[in-house]
Amino acid sequence: MRSCVQRVSRAAVIVGTESVGKIDSGLLVFLGVSHDDDSEDARYLAEKVVELRVFPDEEGKMNRSLAETGGSMLVVSQFTLFGDCRKGRRPSFIDAASPEKGERLYLEFVEAVRMRGIEVATGRFRAHMEVSLVNDGPVTMLLDSKKVF
């Protein structure tokens, strides 16, 4: 399971003309699921993201987590995080999970975050989404349940 995590002052998702997810201060998480991911990956990554110390403390150092700040999370499914661009010019998505498995583990990730007391908004799985955000910092982290970047 792979994520691109951005600290935001606000973020929103629109599908067509409908606003489907919106947060103020917190984390925007683009989440990709691989064909070899399982529930353990969802739980691990959810805990890692919630406890990631990317918010400033009283001295301005990144020393506080989302759990400590009371911020929200917007989770957006993004299978393209598993796009392999090493050969040719068209990405290969062979490592991405099937839509059924991807949605199941995406929902498990969301539920694992909620179980930690975080307010979660979501995009819409398998929909064409317009995502807007104001990256605070900017702060962007890449996390993977299988490897270290």
Task: Describe the fold and architecture.
- With 149 residues, this protein is α/β, with parallel strands linked by helices.
- It is 23% helix and 38% strand.
- The protein contains three helices and eight strands.
- The strands form two sheets. Strands 1, 2, 3, 6, 7 and 8 form a six-stranded mixed sheet that branches. Strands 4-5 form a two-stranded antiparallel sheet.
- Strand 4 (55-56) and strand 5 form a beta hairpin.
- Helix 1 (39-51) packs across helix 3.
- 37% of the residues are buried.
- The mean pLDDT is 96.
List the helices and strands and how they pair.
Elements (H helix, E strand, L loop, with lengths): L1 E14 L2 E6 L2 E7 L6 H13 L3 E2 L5 E3 L1 H4 L2 E6 L21 H17 L4 E3 L7 E15 L5
Parallel strand pairs: 3-6, 6-7
Antiparallel strand pairs: 1-2, 1-3, 1-8, 4-5
Helix pairs in contact: 1-3
List keywords for this structure.
single chain, 149 residues, alpha/beta, six-stranded mixed β-sheet, two-stranded antiparallel sheet, 3 helices, 8 strands, 23% helix, 38% strand, globular
Average pLDDT, rounded to a whole number, is 96
Shape: globular
What is the number of helical segments per DSSP (H or I, 4+ residues)?
3
Q: Give the N-to-C terminal Cα separation.
A: 13 Å
Order of helices and strands: EEEHEEHEHEE
**Record field, number of beta strands:** 8
**Low-pLDDT ranges:** none
Structural class: alpha/beta
Give the biggest sheet. 6 strands, mixed
Amount of beta strand: 35-45%
Helix content: 10-25%
Q: Could you tell me the radius of gyration in angstroms?
A: 15 Å
